[in-house]
Structure formats: C-alpha cells, structure tokens
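pasting for ref
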Amino acid sequence: MVNVAFHWTDGVVALGLGLGTIALVSSQGLGLGRSLAWAWVRAIAQLGVLAYGLAIVITLPYPWVTLGALGVLAGLLGFKLHHTLDRHLSPLGLAGMLGWRLLLPWGYGVWGGAGVGFGEASPYGLGLGLVMGLVMAGMMVDMGGRAGEQVLQALKGQRLDIEARLSLGATVAQALEPHRSQGVRSILLPWLSHLPTLGLVTVPPLWAGMVLAGMDPLVALGYQSLLWGLGLWGGVSMAVGVSDRLVQRVAPQMLEERFQPIAR
C-alpha cells in the first residue's frame, strides 16, 4: 500500500475551499453562513476524535477490544435512536438490536478480514471490521429512525384511515401495514436513484479513498460492494425491526388512548 502523506499545502487548499464556500453562501443572503461554518468545524473535530480513537483501537490486535468498541457504539446509538423515536422504545432494546447486527462486520474482521482465526486476527482485519461496523451502524440508525418516524407520524396523523381499517375488523398490525410498508419503501427509494449514478455521475467515497491509498481498483470495488451489502442489510433489517416493534408494542397503547374518546 502506498504511504500517502497529507502535506500542509493540502490543508491550506482545503481551508481555502471551505472558507470560500462559506463566503459564497453568506453573500447570497441565505442566513446560513454561520451555521455552515459551525457545522464544518464540528464535522472536522468529530472526525478528528474518531480518527484518533480508531488509530488507538487498531494498534491493539485483540478481537475483544474491537468488540468492546462496537458494543459501546451500539449503546450510544441506542440512546440516540431512543430520542429520535420520542422515547417510545427502550434504549437498551434498541442497543441490543444494533449490537447483534454489528457482530457481522466484527466477525468478518476477525475471521474474514485478513485473519485466519480468533487468536490470530491481524490488526488490518480488525480495523477493517471496525470501520465497516461504524458505517453500518450509521446506516442502521438513519434508516431505522426514519422508518420508525413514519410509523409514529401515521399513528398521530392518519387517525381516520387507521380507525376505518380497525372498524372493518382489521388488527392493529393490518391497519398499520400500508404505513409501515411506506416507511420502509421511503428509505429505499433514495438508494434506488443513487446506485445507478455511481461510476457515471458520482464516485463512492470508500472506493476513491482506497484507490488513492494505492489499492487495486478492482479489489477496492470488492470492499465497497461488501460495505454496501452490510449497510443495506443492516439498515433495511433495522428499519423493519423498529417498525415491527412500534406496531406490536407502542401502537396498541397509542391507539387505545386516541380512540377512547370516540368510543364514548
């Protein structure tokens, strides 16, 4: 692999482009210049902390360290998703849903990612599994959160439609099925429009980074495909899991509270 160095002139160019973009936005009177500047600084700081943490974890060639890091990540994101869903689902339950799915990239890093056994996993393989777990976790929280919000919005805003279905003898799950399906469908539509443009209009960031680091483009494509597979499987399965849990555990109580005045 090529040792790619980041020269100070590259930093100057990056800073200049960032400041130029902020100045352009400010000059248009959009009122977003300060917000963009803060978001940019915050993103760099967060990625810097993440990069430093990854550098430390990757230097420790022990599978349990990587597993612990992914476990902490699942716990933190479980609480984030708990707040996204208006605290309707338990943060520990959500963390568990995230955690067992993250065992897949961790297992790949231990046994498949340049490692030949649990006790002989290489730092590169463990680092690869950790990075893939981070990307997969982000997609799971995003897709699961958006699908769950669709179900909650239906429970709050589609009262007449759900009531009509229930009055015709449908169960809660049957009454909410169109809205649950629409929530899962809505998270897949952007991917369906984005994937055909790859290689023609846009370039996947992971693939581009690996190629810049000196990896064979076809090998980088294999890793990019693996990441897509992990991310989409994790995201869609998390969206389905969150939606089903809301329908089974939260919807009956919310519907009973909302429809009780009508029954009287």
